[in-house]
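I am still getting used to backbone structure tokens and would like to learn alongside you. Label the sequence line and the structure token line clearly, so we can match residues to local backbone shapes. Would you write everything just below, so we can both look at the same thing?
***
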Amino acid sequence: MRKQFTNTSLFSLLAVVLMLITAPQSAQAVVSQSKKSIYDIQVLDADGQPVSLADYKGKVLLIVNTATRCGFTPQYKELEALYEKFASEGLEILDFPCNQFGQQAPGSILEIRQFCTANYGIQFPQFDKIEVNGANEHPLYTYLKSQKTFGGFDLNDQRGKMMDGMLRKNDSNYDKNSDIKWNFTKFLVSRDGKVLRRYEPTESLSAIEADLQMELNPVLSTIMARRSIRKYLDKPVEHEKLQTIVRCGINAPSGMNRQPWIVRVVEDQQLIAQVTEVYRQENAEQVKRDPTFRNMFRNAPNLICVCTPREGGGELDAGLLGENMMLAAQAMGLGTCCLGGPVRYLNSSEKARFFLDRLDIPADYRLNYILAIGYPDESPEAKSRDESKVKFIK
């Protein structure tokens, strides 16, 4: 009995010790997890007053660590030019002086502000000096670096090659971590707080300006934000929104204004469920492999079916129609995905013929594609595009 008591006491003691050891780490984890958004972070302005970055919700941000005695310091002039050009469209440049790189930002924040005002006339917000790497790095930069790591310097650029050589002399593995490498590293943040890009100091300001225009112009930002959505909330799209989206579609360009397409919008949830049950029976093994399967249209609650002449023609016009509708849906907070697989199935399955019959498609037309549409339940990252396929003939 005594032995049992001793073992139990020892176990309890070990449990208490373990709890005490892990408690600080757990608390730290909670603090870390609380920074789920850039808007959860506070900074100090040039007067030492706290500022919540939530104050900048709805703005496009360019966040930069600066120095007044650096070879890149003339970028202040270019940054101010960007600010004057785009501030009225929603751009904010947030300047954080940092003395960690070659001690090239000496002096107080007051002295730094006077220097920048006198030499570059900067008007964008300037904040208190911070550290961006190491044990005392500001939580803002911990967050920024966690979202966009170091992507390397462009070694085809002379300045990029110079920076790489200089940093590699001190640390042959400098490129293996996400640390800020030098003054005037920049981060682009979208209106909804997403960290979109990281620019090294050698990146040209003209390239950054092109990205800014993509975010600041509502049409361009809608185009750049659109993704194919394959997960949807179980919530039908309102009829009025579907009407608006289709209206945007039929106003797309059409050769000689022939408008060779026809459009069918499916709001009947029972019809989608019925054809899905047929699909489920004929494709049981495929359905079994998808534990999230609810319907054969990527689980979308609504469909936009586009048909073109059976004998051919009209495909280009139908494509323009579809792109207009997908962009309109994106602008309204909806997601879309252009589907081909369900179309092939519906055009070939006799058991699913009732679905096409219900669409009332004329005999001389054929279902060309289906847009799944609904409220998105995912936010996929953009996939890379091969810009080398584009050539400018001058």
